[in-house]
Specification:
6% helix, 392 residues, 26 strands, 2 helices, single chain
């Protein structure tokens, strides 16, 4: 409960501040004749279940031709400093970039977009637990043309896993972190209508094990006045020898106080893993408030927008037993072999306070009776959440 209160309080305060200062991720601090110095709002505070709160700062200096960026952050639970520097050279529609950093990566992450405090519903990464500590060197080329984006990137990653089957590992607790190296190439293609594909290939040591991973997603929203429809589809597959850190984590955000997009709301963190998977998130609701009210005296209001939705996922592990379980690299894994579905409903904008519309949502876990991950208690299948949307 303490963690839930910490997330809620910090996010509420930061969102109110963000809404009052800027509509973008970068806030200009100084404008000169040759370039501009920016503050990166997303580097001030972040949260995950391994570090808990991370506090820091990020700066970027940009011109029309080039920019440089740096950041630093300190985790309150692991008591480790992270940071990095990067630079980019802009050549028409192309960008050459390179960087170096020491930071954490969530094992099995399926995210192709960067979570931002400006978009509260995108912050499902708050529930990430299994991290890898990485020293990272990155170089690549990004090109945009007629709304399409193409990216080719090479990465060298050295570090170790901050978890084992029994739980999380911490250097400050004297835990031993086994060294691990990953050499990897990454290719990304993105269309203007919401289709994105990412291919990763490389070698992981120890063991010189091949890493192959394909992730495809479709993310689109339609305005159907007065309604709106949001559709998110995602699927992927890995090679048979791919290590756990590059498999697909289908764990969810159960236990978090907020309703996040593009994740299973009733699944526990790291509950499911897959080599092959499919995920659906569908949401339909009012794009405009049913009505609006505002109190000048109390500076609060209401602008309710009801919605309904459905999340669903299926996954498979190479070498799994008949119930979808297996042990891989010392970890006991479970695939959602029989599937999982979550009907949901809610109302956004019940309370408008400051720069945030607050609401409420509920989701229910539905699993076939024969699934080994079926839960029977109401409190285990039902989750009540807060919704939040920044308004500018």
């Amino acid at each position: 409960m303490k963690a839930r209160r910490t997330i809620t309080g910090c996010m509420a305060a930061l969102w109110l501040c963000l809404g009052a200062t800027a509509a973008g991720q970068y806030v200009p601090l100084y404008r000169g004749t040759s370039g501009t110095l920016y503050l990166n709002l997303d580097r001030i505070w972040s949260y995950n279940l391994y570090e808990q709160s991370r506090w820091g700062a990020g700066l970027r200096y940009g011109t029309l031709l080039w920019d440089v960026e740096g950041y630093a952050g300190y985790g309150m639970l692991d008591r480790q400093l992270k940071g990095g520097v990067s630079g980019a050279l802009h050549l028409g529609g192309s960008t050459l970039y390179a960087g170096a950093a020491r930071d954490y990566q969530a094992a099995g992450s399926r995210r192709l977009s960067v979570p931002s405090l400006r978009d509260p519903a995108s912050l499902g990464s708050f529930m990430s637990r299994r991290m890898s500590d990485r020293m990272m060197l990155t170089a690549g080329l990004r090109r945009q043309h007629h709304g399409y984006l193409w990216l080719a990137e090479g990465n060298v990653l050295y570090g170790g896993r901050l978890f084992c089957n029994e739980g999380l590992l911490y250097r400050v607790a004297g835990d031993t972190i086994e060294p691990e190296t990953l050499l990897e190439a990454r290719l990304v293609a993105q269309s203007p209508w919401g289709l994105t594909a990412q291919l990763q290939a490389g070698v992981n040591n120890p063991g010189r094990r091949a890493v192959t991973r394909l992730l495809v997603q479709y993310d689109r929203q339609w305005e159907l006045n007065p309604f709106e429809l949001q559709l998110f589809l995602q699927g992927g597959a890995t090679g048979r020898a791919t290590p756990y850190v590059r498999m697909f984590d289908l764990g969810g955000t159960f236990g978090a106080p907020f309703c996040f997009r593009q994740s299973l709301l009733t699944a526990r963190p790291n509950e499911f893993t897959a080599n092959v998977f499919a995920f659906l998130s569908l949401r339909f609701g009012f794009g405009r408030p049913l009505f609006e009210g505002w109190s000048r005296l109390f500076q609060i209001g209401t602008s309710p927008r009801p919605f309904i939705g459905l999340n669903a996922a299926w996954g498979h592990l190479y070498g799994q037993d008949p119930e979808g379980g297996m042990t891989w690299e010392g970890l006991n894994l479970q695939a959602p072999l029989y599937g999982i579905a979550e009907p949901m409903a809610g109302v956004e904008g019940l309370l408008r306070w400051g720069a945030v519309d607050w609401g409420a949502a509920v989701a229910w876990r539905m699993v076939p009776p024969e699934a080994p991950y079926r839960l029977t208690g109401t409190q285990d299948n039902l989750t009540l959440m807060v919704t939040a949307r920044l308004i500018f």
